[in-house]
Amino acid sequence: MTRIVLDAMGSDNHPEPELEACLQAHARWGDPVTLVGPAERLLPALAARGAGPETVHLVDAPEVLEMTDHPADAARDKPRSSMAVGIDLLKQGQAEAFVTAGNTGGAMATALFRLGRIRGVRRPALATVFPVRSGRAILTDIGANADCRPEYLVQFAIFGSLYAQHILEIPEPRVGLLSNGEESSKGNLLVKETYPLMQASGLRFVGNLEPKEFLSGKADVLVTDGFSGNVMLKTSEAVSSFLIDLIRSSIRAGVATSLGGLLARPAFRKVSALLDPAEYGAGPLLGVDGLVFVGHGRSDAHALVNALRVARQAVESGLLPAMRQAIQARLTPGEAEAQP
């Protein structure tokens, strides 16, 4: 049995999407999902849905980490929040992964405070699966670290490469470095200093890539700092939504285009699904000493089921021990001895 914990109070419309996701996940995999949140609110909702302990295992967490909370303060001052209680279940060995659609900064702070980093990790990174012409790829970091050092980006590349191996099942992922040009001389100071470290990393480094090269499928993993990655992700999502709405409006503008749209509907649905963040579920906080996945605040039940699917895949493929082993293998003897 794969034990996954779901934060009942994470999404913008909590807890309804989370409750529905638990029922769908149980129907799909058979394992009960552990749901953490205020029991006095969740018990009546579960009873109304006919969900007993064989379907949903409820753990009481009376406090909620809100989107408006300061991440570090909330991680410290709300020890009974659904995030804190859920992540504590990981720490205690009562679960293998934790999923939330809540405050990203809060999830990062809570995970660091309660789980810590994998030995040897400089900074954790938030990753996501990203649609590209050849299928899917990994983009990291997408917001955990606005300011980075070159050695951080090399570790992000290691995390991203392992995630591509375990989730996308790519044996030797190609790793690129986000820049404003493909030449090794291009980029800001961070990119220029990272480039030779990536060359010497032992990874399948394919050099600097502009976004258009990444989208065309020239890499399986694209590495960047959290500021640039977050801007790239949000811009891509906004452009995708804008184009889909524009095409839909244009199709409905006249009789001829409406008829053509009916014929093209299967193709539009396929493209919409490819670009829909809900299809990818949630992204992992790679580098914390536990499997923590963070989804969009606007996640619905479908997105949360996909988040649970990705978390299960990470557990069953052995992602966490693989990351621990990969980082330890790169520590010098002095660094290894200095680790707590």
Q: Number of folding domains?
A: 2
How many angstroms does the end-to-end distance come to? 32 Å
Specify the number of helices: 13
Mean pLDDT: 89
Shape: globular
Q: Detail the poorly predicted runs.
A: none
* Helix content percent band: 40-55%
Based on CA atoms alone, the radius of gyration comes out at: 21 Å
CATH superfamily of the largest domain: Isopropylmalate Dehydrogenase
SS strand fraction: 15-25%
Which CATH architecture of the largest domain would you pick?
Answer: 3-Layer(aba) Sandwich
What top-tier CATH class of the largest domain fits best? Alpha Beta
What is the strand tally?
11
| Largest sheet report | 11 strands, mixed
| H and E string | EHEHEHHEHEEHEHEHEHHEEHHH
Question: What is the name of the CATH topology of the largest domain?
Answer: Isopropylmalate Dehydrogenase
Secondary structure class reads alpha/beta
